[in-house]
Structure formats: C-alpha cells, structure tokens
C-alpha cells in the first residue's frame, strides 16, 4: 500500500510522460461469489486504504461491456499504478544524480562481468 501511495502521489505531481507511471483502473471479476471471497482480505485492505477509487459493484460487469456469456457474478475495481519500468528507472537514476549521487561501474573478476 505504501508503494501505491507513493506512485499515486508521484503521478499527480510530475508529468507521467517523464517517469512512466500512470494510475489506471484495475478490474477484478468473479464467476462465483466464492472466487471474490477468496480475494476478500485484499479487497477490504484496498477499501480501508481509502486511496483509490475503490468500487465493489456487480454493475461494473455491464458497465465494462463484459460478455454476458462469461457467467460473471461480481466485481470490484480500484486505481492501480502501471509502471513503464525503463522510463521509471531512467527517471529515478536522473533524480538521484541531481541529488548528488555518483554511479560507478566496476568489473568483478570473481563473476566475470560489470556491476
């Protein structure tokens, strides 16, 4: 949950094109109520965090235009970070360099590669 908070805040204050993090709706569907109850603790944790647009509503099935023949009976959704790792790592490296960090590349003989 802490990472979600950080990524959510970062995507709100810095252009996502700069760091590669976007907040998108994640949907969780269940064909049986039991399937969703297996995820119940996770669902309650997200709901209690009150960070993301959490919504537990079977009407999401039709709103998301899911094929009725799938037999889905329940669903919930919330915002979740989607991270383009290459863009994020470049942005993060540049950030720590701006803060004064220096990177060194060394060749380790014991493993025969650069680290």
Task: Write up this protein.
The chain is an alpha+beta fold. The protein has one domain. It contains six helices and five strands, in the order H-H-E-H-H-E-H-E-H-E-E. The chain has helices spanning 2-13, 16-19, 33-38, 40-49, 60-63, 85-98, and strands spanning 21-30, 55-56, 74-83, 107-108, 113-114. The strands form two sheets. A three-stranded antiparallel beta sheet has the order 1-3-2. Strands 4-5 form a two-stranded antiparallel ribbon. A hairpin with a 4-residue loop joins strand 4 and strand 5 (113-114). The radius of gyration is 20 Å and the shape is elongated. The two termini are 31 Å apart.
Order of helices and strands: HHEHHEHEHEE
Termini separation: 31 Å
**Helicity range of the residues?**
40-55%
Indicate the structural class.
alpha+beta
The residue-averaged pLDDT reads 85
Would you report the number of β strands?
A: 5
Number of helices: 6
Largest sheet: 3 strands, antiparallel
Residue share in β-strands: 15-25%
**Please, what is the oligomeric state?**
single chain
Question: How would you summarize the topology of this molecule?
Answer:
Blueprint: H1 2-13, H2 16-19, E1 21-30, H3 33-38, H4 40-49, E2 55-56, H5 60-63, E3 74-83, H6 85-98, E4 107-108, E5 113-114
Antiparallel strand pairs: 1-3, 2-3, 4-5
Q: Characteristics of this structure?
A:
single chain; 115 residues; alpha+beta; 3-stranded antiparallel β-sheet; two-stranded antiparallel ribbon; 6 helices; 5 strands
Quick rundown:
The protein is an alpha+beta fold and 115 residues long. Helix content is 43%, strand content 23%. The model has no long low-confidence stretch (mean pLDDT 85).
């Amino acid at each position: 949950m802490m990472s979600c908070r950080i990524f959510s805040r970062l995507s709100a204050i810095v252009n996502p094109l700069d760091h590669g993090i976007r907040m998108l709706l994640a949907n969780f569907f269940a064909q049986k109520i039991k399937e969703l109850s297996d995820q119940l603790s996770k669902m309650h944790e997200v709901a209690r965090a009150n960070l993301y647009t959490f919504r537990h509503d079977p009407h999401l099935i039709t709103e998301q235009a899911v094929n009725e023949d799938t037999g889905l009976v329940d669903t919930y959704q919330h915002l979740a970070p989607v991270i383009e790792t290459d863009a994020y790592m470049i942005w993060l490296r540049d950030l720590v360099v701006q803060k004064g960090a220096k990177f060194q590349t060394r060749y380790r003989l014991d493993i025969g590669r650069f680290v």
